[in-house]
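User: C-alpha cells for this one?
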Amino acid sequence: MVNMIFRIACVTFFVQFCVAAPSRSDYEDSRENSVDGVGQLHPFDLLIFTQRWPITACYEWRETGKGHICSLPTPATVWTIHGIWPTKYNTIGPAFCNKSAIFDLSQLTSIEQQLKEHWLNVEKNKPDDSLWEHEWLKHGTCAAEAIEQLSTENKYFSQGLTWLEQHSVNAAFAASGDIQPGYNYSLTTLNKALFDYYGKHVAIECFFDHNTHLQLLNEIRICFDKQLQSVDCDGIVGMQRMTISNNRVGTVISNCNVANPIFYPNAAPKDMGEKVLVDPAATYETIFEATGEYTDGQDNGEQQTYEVVEVILVKH
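Assistant:
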C-alpha cells in the first residue's frame, strides 16, 4: 500500500513537473525577452544595411504565388532599401526584441514620401506600409535598444534613407563604368566594382529563379558596427567568404555560385511562363578572358579548389 502511494506521488510530481516545466523554445523566448535592467538585452555585432534590386524581388515574389503582382519604383532600375538588420556573428537575429511594440505610421509623416520611393514594398498584394511595419517590429526594435541614432521609428528609417544616399549600389556600379542591368556578370566582376567603391567586403546575394534556371543579382548587404562605421560583412548566415586566386581583390562574400554567370535583370517578367531573359538573336564578342581559382572551406575543415573562367562579352 505504501509502495502504491509512493508511486502515485511520483507520477503526480512527474506530471506536474512536465506540465509546468518550460519547453526549450519557451525558455529561449523568455530568455530573449527578459529584462534585467543591466546592459543590452539582445546583443548583436553588426548592422546589415540591405539594398535590394526590385526587379529580382519581383521575380522572387511572383514565383511564390500565381496571383502575386509587383509594385516597382519609377524608374524600376534603381536599388531600394530592404532593411537594417542587427545581427550576431554566425547567427540569425536577434529579432522582435520588444513584443509590446506597435508600428505607428504617424511617426513617419515627415519622411513617408521618401520611403514610398526608396523603401517601397515590391509585394503589391500587401498594404503599402506592411514592409515598414515588419522591418521596424522585427529589426528596428532590436536596433533601438542599443543605438541612440536608431532609437525611434523615425530615426531608424531616416538612417536607412541617409545610408542609401551615402552608399547607393546605383552609385557603386555607375562608378565602375561597365555594370548595367540587362547583362550577365561574373561574381568577381561585381565584387571588384563594389570593393573599389566601398573599400570593404560587402555581401552579394543571389536568387535562383526556378522558372528560368538562372541566378539573379538580388541584394547587396553593407555592414556597419554599432558606432555606425563600415566594416566587412563577415559572419552572415547563408554567406560564404571565398578566396579567389589571381584576382586583385582576392576575397568575396556571397551565396552566389561563383562558377556561373549572374544575370542583372532590367525588366520584370511579363508572366511566370517567360523563359528568355536575354536576346536569343544577339551575338557577342569576347573582349576579355581570365582564369583563376577560388578556394572554398568545407564543413570538415578541408579546402576545395575550383577553376574559374571569367569572360566579358560585348553585344552586337
